[in-house]
């Protein structure tokens, strides 16, 4: 079972290490972790995807809350959350198949952001399954490099995790 | 924010903060980057105890904290000084002891350059501190120190480290000391939920076989009085963990001793057959629970703890009550009624008679049984503070002394740190100078920090080190005897040192007892001397700690190991 945690933390040096260190020390596995500043520059938001049953989730949440720099931990339920990930794919491509790749990009509302004689770079955002799907379609052309940001997530509606 | 009290250096500001936090004693060891601080200390009224190894500074600060309930303070220089504190900090973390550790750091401009005597101590201590700080701006220093003392001593107590780059201590700042602390991510829960407390009371009333299982949290929340009242009111037997010793009177008829690996049989049987465990300030350590699956299998569990992360961490809890033990017990007392424990208490009395803690006295007075020494220390000085190292002697001290008051038994519970007791006894004696303080020690453990004899002699701190000298690393030897076919691999340390001469070399008093009738006179002489004293008790070398639950077994699968003469 995967859980998406939204963790508001003090925007201070070393906080990421404290959070990541808690996971490794206690043997919990992070699937993905993203971090960036929020609308309040003194607060950063981490979106952490963690794998485990409800007991693991409970312990992770409590242990995170014990960290002095952690302000709030929220378990984001998928039905009430919008989730996105950004991925960049560098795909082998020449004149012969460029238009085919561009078509695929179009279908996924992805963008070509670099074109070179033998490669293109495609930018795509979406939920995990959409990115998995475009990856499957691009693979036959030859993916030279790829990078995914990991998930970011916000609760739907006016209510935020801090309210 | 209070008004400025003028310009001063960071080092002076540190001393000023310590004054305001009520610190009277700190334990430490100087070094290059600490020179500004030591120079400021030179003019202050704070007593600085110069240890001979930084590890001892951390342990001494902890012993001071445990004996007094105040926050212990230690200081070490950058790099190796700081890393030498690590064991003591980890020990304080495992046993939830309030401590603030200051470390010197290389100047800000050199941080990250692998400068001389640089170590990333905030990185190193992240997993073993409640929180830590690298001070990056001298103006922040007073606020950080205020926060450090607040964090260390509130909620679930623990160690906090403050790393001080040298330039921070020399820079001049306008000194403001904040009145209060504002940490939006730190709001410990003190008041237990009333509904939960009422639920607990209802369970207690129904219960036929209740057991109170109390730990170090009772000591740190100063809840021993409330615990005793509750036990008497609901008529439940009480077992206290190693760190909870003294949290309930050891001579009380409801006391059933320590649970777990070297617990009394009757405590372990009581837990296993109970229908309700009232756990107060404990964390269900594996040395207590044994095999988790079979721990108190038929009992409902009420868990009172200030740290929500302890709830259902190891054992599934039915009624959690998060908050401070003292307040919760006070509230619970209002609602709790007597349990249905008449038959149960009779059964416990029967177990107590059937399976008492005991050892077999040798036929002649030639050999000394270690348990006998504990009993003699108790008879000679019942209100002494007993500090221990780690090993067999520690378990005997836990089993045979019967502590009546909180803060009279000080021992490394969670980390199990050999070398802890002697420096911790220094802290305890300075915190409670009117008490007789014994370090109950093994010959192995004592050698891990015996250099502190120089400290106690120079500073005239009259602690008594009672070495239970069996020529072995006794507990490990016991395991080798039981589980490794007596193959005593690297556990024999016989004839390695003459402890009397060692004591004398440092200028301490050295005494030796090799026969039973020499035990009491040696204890009396040590107490009367008023000097730092080492007593070398030459004890029976293959005596075992009994009873014992083998690692991984259920706690009622308990073995008697006493040796027949």
From TrEMBL, chain A:
Gene3D superfamilies, A to Z: 3.30.70.260, ACT-like. Chain A, domain 2
EC number(s) stated in the UniProt entry for this protein: 2.2.1.6
Metabolic or biological pathway, per its Swiss-Prot or TrEMBL entry: Amino-acid biosynthesis; L-isoleucine biosynthesis; L-isoleucine from 2-oxobutanoate: step 1/4; Amino-acid biosynthesis; L-valine biosynthesis; L-valine from pyruvate: step 1/4
Top EC class, one word: transferase
InterPro entries: Acetalactate_synth_ssu, Acetolactate_synth/TF_NikR_C, Acetolactate_synth_ssu_C, ACT-like_dom_sf, ACT_dom, AHAS_ACT, AHAS_small-like_ACT
One GO-annotated biological process of the protein: isoleucine biosynthetic process
Domain spans labelled ACT: 4-78
Reaction catalysed by this enzyme: 2 pyruvate + H(+) = (2S)-2-acetolactate + CO2
GO cellular component, one term: cytosol
GO terms assigned for molecular function: acetolactate synthase activity; acetolactate synthase regulator activity
UniProt KW keywords: Amino-acid biosynthesis, Branched-chain amino acid biosynthesis, Transferase
Subunit structure: Dimer of large and small chains.
NCBIfam families: acolac_sm, PRK11895.1
Protein family per UniProt: Belongs to the acetolactate synthase small subunit family.
Job description of the protein: Catalyzes the conversion of 2 pyruvate molecules into acetolactate in the first common step of the biosynthetic pathway of the branched-amino acids such as leucine, isoleucine, and valine.
Name under which the protein is recorded: Acetolactate synthase small subunit
Native species: Methanolobus zinderi
Lineage, top ranks: Archaea, Methanobacteriati, Methanobacteriota, Stenosarchaea group, Methanomicrobia
Gene for this chain: ilvN
Automatic annotation (TrEMBL), chain B:
Record domain Thiamine pyrophosphate enzyme central: where: 197-332
GO-annotated molecular function: acetolactate synthase activity; flavin adenine dinucleotide binding; magnesium ion binding; thiamine pyrophosphate binding
A GO CC annotation given for this chain: acetolactate synthase complex
Claim: Metal-binding is one of the keywords in the record: yes
Entry EC no(s): 2.2.1.6
Positions of the Thiamine pyrophosphate enzyme N-terminal TPP-binding domain: 8-120
Key words of the record: Amino-acid biosynthesis, Branched-chain amino acid biosynthesis, FAD, Flavoprotein, Magnesium, Metal-binding, Thiamine pyrophosphate, Transferase
A family per Pfam: TPP_enzyme_C
GO BP annotations, alphabetical order: isoleucine biosynthetic process; L-valine biosynthetic process; sulfur compound biosynthetic process
Reactions this protein catalyses: 2 pyruvate + H(+) = (2S)-2-acetolactate + CO2
PANTHER family the record matches: ACETOLACTATE SYNTHASE CATALYTIC SUBUNIT, MITOCHONDRIAL (PTHR18968:SF13), THIAMINE PYROPHOSPHATE ENZYMES (PTHR18968)
Protein name, UniProt field: Acetolactate synthase
Organism: Methanolobus zinderi
